[in-house]
Amino acid sequence: xPFVIIxxxxxxxxxxxxxxTGCSISYSSGKSSDSSTSSSTSSAGSxxxxxxxxxxxxxxxxxxxxxxxxxxxxxxxxxxxxxITEIAINHSITDWEKxxxxxxxxxxxxxxxxxxxxxxxxxxxxKTLSQSPKYSLLLEGxxx
Length: 144
What we know:
The protein is mainly α. The protein has a domain of 96 residues. 60% of the residues lie in helices and 0% in strands. It has 6 helices and no strands. It is globular.
């Protein structure tokens, strides 16, 4: 049992350091359909638009991974929101609740955690989200 506590604590330290240093939390399931970027990006696009697309993808990956982590550790709503806020700040997002990509990424995280649409309303934070217009974005990420 002490090994589990030490491992979990090391994971939390790693995640905290990753967020502070600007590293991206990444989760890969090996499915090419999970990618939110397209290989058909136009070569005529500017470097800044490609960089912006990469930044959004990294943000969404971090939110998705944190959703999985918070679900596995059974964090309450306040803890989950605090972690998402930290990720948003790390990605220079001032109001994550206004970003559609946040909710799509949460849905992807729910999918990765094996949560189905019937279970969402029983989970902390997502219980109240089901009454929001953002809920359809969450379902888009879950089913996408």
